[in-house]
Amino acid sequence: MKKTIVISPSDSVGVALTALKKGETAEGVTLAEDIVKGHKFALRPIKNGEKIIKYGEVIGHATADIAPGEHIHSHNMATCLDGTLEYSYNKKDIAPSPEVKHRTVNVYERKNGEVGIRNELWVIPTVGCVNAQARAIVEAFTRKHGELPGIDGCFTYTHPYGCSQIGDDHERTKLLLQRMVKHPNCGGVLVLGLGCENNRMDVFRETLGDYDAERTGFLVAQEVGDEIAEGVKLLEKLYEKAKNDKRVPKDISCLKVGLKCGGSDGLSGITANPLVGRFSDYIAAAGGTTVLTEVPEMFGAEQLLMDRAKDEETFGKIVKLVNGFKEYYQKHDQPVYENPSPGNKAGGITTLEDKSLGCTQKSGSGAVCDVLFDGDMLSAHGLNLLNGPGNDMVAVTNLGCAGCHLVLFTTGRGTPFGGFVPTVKISTNSDLAGRKPNWIDLDAGSIVAGDTFDSKLEQLIDLVVSVVNGQQTVNERYNSRDIALFKTGVTL
């Protein structure tokens, strides 16, 4: 097993792939101190103020003179980022997509031509006031009907919003819930309202657009005597429709896959994220769709994404995406680059550039085909970028609401979280996978022990196909299913 890695020949730092001791020789230098796994050490003398290079790119500058073999982290390094920027379009030549081995997946074909990878019943509250009633309806229904043959379960997705919101927050709450109501992973949905919220049921229905009336029920709690009993009755009607749905074979190009990382560490950009990037390239070459979000974690790596824009119009959208999110921070008088998190830093990530250059490895090497803002749904095959924050729960919710069937979620620190679509957890290190088998679906940490990216990619493709065909992810087995709606405004 390799003990260290230098990612690019131009790098001024090496990364420890395992814990290193003071006095050891690593990458031709003698270590001046112990180096924790995932952390960086200097390969040559670095002067105070000099830019520090990792991934072949700038990840910050030295705040003190650094000798070869010294630990490089927040005590002697800081970000180079500051404010909004002007960008130029320097289109990168993208290598033609290689021939790929197409795979067949078994999915549910919906009335509107969309496909789903699950056939579930959902209860979606329009307002947080009826969260308890939504849970009670699901509990009463499942208690009455037991195993529910023919569907993949009955679930509710509660949230605290839907009232006392105005402007963009109100519209976003309504829109995201409407996207969930029409998600193809759902074979039938009950929309549950209170009756006096500003996310009113009549407006919700009027602005829902085209939907399958046979698979969508609506219930306003204030308008009936026993909303639990009425809710169960409506679920029973939906179940009668959904339970006869059957999977049909389709090419893997039908898939829309979200790309997300959370609890990153110093190995994220070396193992799991590049692996997911290779998967993104594979899906794009097969004619499918992937989506990268977490805009704040593009800061510092955004020019690399811009250079891969398929055309100048898409480049302009990426500029709008990045600078728009910086302006959102500035509007609230918050520092644009106050990132990474304490857990990221403990794992070896020092600056936002360090984090972003690792994070964007998930995008692979293909062209950026489109950029999605609030209300946009996926329409372009290939790699898409999606507006939204890095927060795990918000980002996965946004990905699902944009149309993703599942999310590939890389993590170095570990999390049990799962969204309303299957959330495949991929560990960056084998220690996490060994300690937390109840959190992790696939161990990418074995790459540092000798597994090749090619062999690991085949494992990941096999896993995705199995999940699409019905194999439960860890988050599904442990019923870790949550949503979080992005909020930017005031509460009345």
Description:
- With 492 residues, this protein is α/β, with parallel strands linked by helices.
- The chain has 13 helices and 23 strands.
- The chain has three domains: 4-78, Archaeosine Trna-guanine Transglycosylase, Chain: A, domain 4, CATH 2.30.130; 120-244, Ribose 5-phosphate Isomerase B, Chain: A (3-Layer(aba) Sandwich), CATH 3.40.1400; 253-477.
- It has a seven-stranded parallel sheet, with helices on both faces. A four-stranded antiparallel sheet has the order 1-2-5-8, with no helix packed on it. Strands 13-12-14-15 form a four-stranded parallel sheet, with helices on both faces.
- The protein is globular and about 75 Å long.
- The mean pLDDT is 95.
In short:
By secondary structure, the chain is of the alpha/beta class. The protein is 29% helix and 19% strand. It has three domains: 4-78, Archaeosine Trna-guanine Transglycosylase, Chain: A, domain 4 (Roll), CATH 2.30.130; 120-244, Ribose 5-phosphate Isomerase B, Chain: A (3-Layer(aba) Sandwich); 253-477.
